[in-house]
TrEMBL record:
Residues 108-237 form the GST C-terminal domain. This is Uncharacterized protein. It comes from Cryptolaemus montrouzieri. Pfam families: GST_C, GST_N_3. Homodimer. InterPro entries: Glutathione-S-Trfase_C-like (IPR010987), Glutathione-S-Trfase_C_sf (IPR036282), Glutathione_S-Trfase (IPR040079), Glutathione_S-Trfase_N (IPR004045), GST_C (IPR004046), Thioredoxin-like_sf (IPR036249). Coiled coil: none annotated.
């Protein structure tokens, strides 16, 4: 596993009492969930030692990695020996543990429930539909399925409906649910889904990219999505 060394950022949502605290973040740039969680880490300004886990070379199956994540997935976070390995859980934990306020993950029960609901939609409906489309292309060397593309587009339409008269996916404020969803939408766009067919999604997507830009959107999310898209297109040749 490749380590990129400690990275420190600080901004208004990060609790300044944690300025000397650091976590280890195990990451693979092509992974949408991993990109989402890493962008939250950057947004919170948490010092982190970034370690790249090369999924395509099987580093996620090494004994050392399986010891901290028996499900051999990315991302994984090591916070002083406390290990977490689900992107949604990681984003919730870091927001509750280290943000100086609850803007990214609200405390109010109904607002928190809506954030959780949209993250559940992302991790259990939107992303699985996208994965069902791209995984056979990557791992079975088959051409994309028109039927599976339509199923993903049905989920995009659901997202478009959720965004009707809304600024963000879980209400009026940017939350970790937006990070979860934007990682999926950016990946879908990179593998040639036409996001602009869905007006509410398209407007929100532009807004999200602008809001996340100061925290490394281009470096983390866009670059990873572009690499994912290039790898996908190579499989089509």
């Amino acid at each position: 596993m490749e380590s990129e060394g400690p990275i420190s950022l600080n901004n208004k949502v990060f609790d300044p009492k944690m300025v000397n605290h650091s976590i280890t973040f195990y990451h693979y740039p092509l992974s949408p969930p991993s990109r989402a969680a890493l962008l939250v880490v950057r947004t919170l300004g948490i010092k982190h030692d970034l370690k790249i886990v090369d999924i395509f070379n099987g580093e996620q199956h090494s004994p050392a990695y399986l010891k901290i994540n028996p499900f051999h997935t990315v991302p994984t976070v090591d916070d002083g020996g406390f290990y977490l390995y689900d992107s949604c859980v990681i984003m919730k934990y870091l927001s509750k543990q280290y943000a100086k306020d609850d803007s990214l993950f609200p405390k109010e029960p109904r607002k928190a429930a809506l954030v959780g609901l949209r993250m559940y939609f992302g991790s259990n409906y939107l992303f699985p539909a996208l994965r069902d489309y791209f995984a056979p292309v990557f791992f079975e060397n088959v051409q994309p399925s028109t039927e599976k593309a339509k199923k993903f587009e049905e989920r995009l339409q659901q997202l478009n409906d959720f965004l009707e008269n809304e600024t963000w996916v879980a209400g009026k404020d940017l939350t970790i649910a937006d990070f979860c969803i934007v990682s999926i939408v950016s990946t879908a766009e990179a593998i040639m889904f036409h996001v602009n067919k869905y007006p509410n999604v398209s407007t929100w997507y532009k807004r999200a990219k602008e809001a996340m830009a100061p925290f490394g959107y281009e470096e983390i999310m866009q670059d990873g999505s572009d690499k994912f898209g290039n790898a996908f297109k190579e499989k089509l040749k």
